[in-house]
Design brief:
The protein is of the alpha/beta class. It has a domain of about 190 residues: Glutamine Phosphoribosylpyrophosphate, subunit 1, domain 1 (4-Layer Sandwich), CATH 3.60.20.10. It has 27 helices and 16 strands.
């Protein structure tokens, strides 16, 4: 099991095996290089831990434990968790600031305690196989047990193709689950239970006299300071955007030595090049900057390995670019910081900017709100008003429908066409409506909140852990690099959730307060530029350079015999090869899904890219 995770910890391994429990660990040495070997135990060897992640407030927690009479033999954050468990049991989770997945064995209670950080920065999977409970940082560790069956869950296939990732605790492999963010698992006496210990609270206090900018500035500075703790070289991933540049700005204030920065570009025409903005940021803060360019051939070469590392199929082409830039970074550093999470915390995505105006229009319609879609469409058609034409398609959608249309397929227009891809036998095995339950359950918890807060909450619970953070962790760990995400510190998320909507989106602009705080700190050209995301030219590559790969993969005898899809529908999709905004995502998702089948069901060998 640990051999399958060698890439996550090439520096060392360690084991504790006693009676009913076996704990194994692969170490990527970051803090306390000399004495931090795991598993780690307490003074009388009754509590044992294996831990992946970083606890950023461990020094102050360590001091508390020493004052309380505990004896600590190392200077690692791992040992702090052991002694916090002695003091507080599972309640220790409330005291931790950081990213983590860990397992604690309590010899006295004969109890296993698994926990995952609040947001899901670090992955943790588990499986009940016979009378055994297996767990690991990646699915492949669980699959190392020959007793685990590789059986696909067809309902989750539909969920993946609906969202292009798999929100919720299930995975494509039946019986293997994700421990959800903000949850812990207790196993004792042959059974186990799962409990939630953290949820994101949207409680905006009516206090117009708060110094929001001052609070956020200090919070960002303190958070970045904690994330800079490391006994090995550390760098920053620069995207050319506001958030990663802000991380560099705070880091350069807090460190006297030059910060190392890394970015990536693409050898492709007609693609937005982020590198000039990354260079501008690096030059502005005096960083030691490096960059890399990848081609369509690089993209194609890594795809099978992308699937092997991700394990859960995700339509995330930027992950391939992340692999190559983290590979470059690994030649110089072991830890990277990124700006991931700023959009989810402060409302940075373009879609969020529509919500205040949309709610104003709906409010103005008053009693006509039930006919909002028809009214808006009529006014838009007859007035030429660009505003009404822009919002008319959204007026009649529920929040759940709008969310699904934004993150997945355009629900009102292409659902029937989407389902026509499925073979008749496959369609009879699934209930398409069940795929929407995950998002709808989260919406029900915040239905009284403004629309933007509803979207931010659901994003934090689904899109963030099950798409962006899986990519961030697994692809950087593929190169034995630890990625840290300061903007996803739970204190920052809780602070952002407490803000009035006007501090997030105002006058058609997202991240209003964050931009105020960063004015004068981030170069103006970066602060005011239009958000472009991470412009990987995969759609163009699939139409041309990767066309043969995509066609051969989706129309191969092996793929068509699986019985998931209608070959004629796949052929029609390929004949258009990416026409329309949704088709490239669907084609990439289908390609990744077939490669996943080959890797995890057929167990085809996967070569490392050169």
């Amino acid at each position: 099991m640990t051999d399958s995770l060698h890439h996550r910890g090439p520096d060392d391994d360690g084991f504790y095996i006693s009676g009913p429990v076996g704990l194994g660990h692969r170490r990527l040495s970051i803090i306390d290089l000399s004495t931090g070997k795991q598993p780690i135990t307490n003074e009388d060897s009754t509590i044992w831990i294996v831990f992946n992640g970083e606890i950023y407030n461990y020094l102050e927690l360590r001091q508390e434990l020493l004052s309380a009479g505990h004896t600590l033999k190392t200077t690692s954050d791992t040992e702090v968790i052991v002694h916090l468990y002695e003091e507080h049991g599972p309640a220790l989770l409330k005291k931790l600031r950081g990213m983590f997945a860990f397992a604690i064995w309590d010899e006295n209670e004969k109890c296993l305690f698994l926990a995952r950080d609040r947001v899901g920065i670090k992955p943790l999977y588990y499986c009940q196989s016979g009378d055994a409970l297996l767990f690991g940082s990646e699915i492949k560790a669980i699959l190392a047990d020959p007793g685990v069956q590789r059986e696909i869950d067809l309902q989750i296939v539909d969920r993946f193709l609906t969202y292009q990732y798999t929100p919720g605790p299930e995975t494509l492999l039946r019986g293997i689950y994700k421990l959800q963010p903000g949850h812990f698992l207790l196993a004792k006496g042959g059974s186990f239970s799962i409990q939630e210990y953290w949820d994101l609270p949207f409680n905006s206090p009516a206090d117009n006299h708060r110094d929001y900018a001052g609070e956020l500035t200090e919070l960002l500075r303190d958070t970045v300071k904690g994330h800079l703790l490391s006994d090995v070289p550390l760098g920053i991933l620069l995207s050319g955007g506001v958030d990663s540049t802000a991380m560099l700005g705070f880091a350069s204030e807090l460190r006297s030595e030059k910060i190392q920065t890394f970015t990536i570009g693409f050898d492709a025409p007609n693609v937005v090049d982020e590198r000039p903005y990354a260079r501008l940021a690096a030059e502005h803060f005096g960083a030691e900057h490096r960059e890399i360019t990848i081609t369509s051939k690089d993209f194609e070469t890594f795809l099978p390995r992308y699937v092997w590392h991700m394990e859960e199929p995700v339509c995330e082409p930027p992950a391939v670019a992340l692999y190559y830039v983290s590979k470059l970074a690994r030649e110089h550093v072991k830890v990277l910081l990124s700006g991931e999470g700023g959009d989810e915390a402060f409302g940075g995505y373009p879609e969020y900017r529509r919500f205040p105006q949309l709610e104003k229009i709906k409010s103005a319609l008053g009693p006509l709100n039930g006919l909002a879609g028809a009214v808006a469409a009529w006014v838009g058609d007859h007035s030429g008003s660009s505003a009404f034409q822009k919002y008319a398609p959204l007026m009649s959608l529920t929040p759940e429908e709008y969310y699904l249309g934004r993150t997945a397929l355009p629900i009102k227009r292409t659902q029937d066409q989407f389902l026509s891809l499925y073979a008749k036998e496959f369609l009879s095995e699934i209930d398409h409506k069940k795929s929407f339950v995950s998002a709808r359950n989260y919406f029900s918890k915040v239905h009284s909140q403004p629309l933007i807060n509803q979207m931010l909450y659901v994003d934090t619970k689904t899109w963030l852990p099950d798409d962006l953070l899986i990519k961030a962790d697994k692809i950087t760990m593929a190169n034995s690099v630890e990625l840290r995400v300061p903007l996803l510190d739970h204190r920052i998320l809780e602070f952002a959730a407490s803000l009035p909507v006007s501090q997030k989106v105002r006058d058609g602009s997202g991240k209003f307060l964050l931009r105020q705080v960063l004015a004068g700190r981030v170069p103006e050209a970066i602060l005011t530029r239009k958000k472009v995301g991470f412009p990987v030219p995969y759609a163009d590559w699939m139409r041309h350079d990767l066309k043969e790969l995509v066609n051969d993969t989706l129309l191969s005898k092996r793929a068509t015999e699986r019985g998931y899809f209608n070959r004629s529908s796949i052929e029609r999709l390929l004949s258009g090869n990416g026409n329309g905004s949704y088709a490239p995502k669907l084609l990439f998702s289908l390609t990744v899904f077939e490669l996943w089948n080959q890797c995890f069901l057929d167990q085809a060998p996967v070569a490392l890219p050169v």
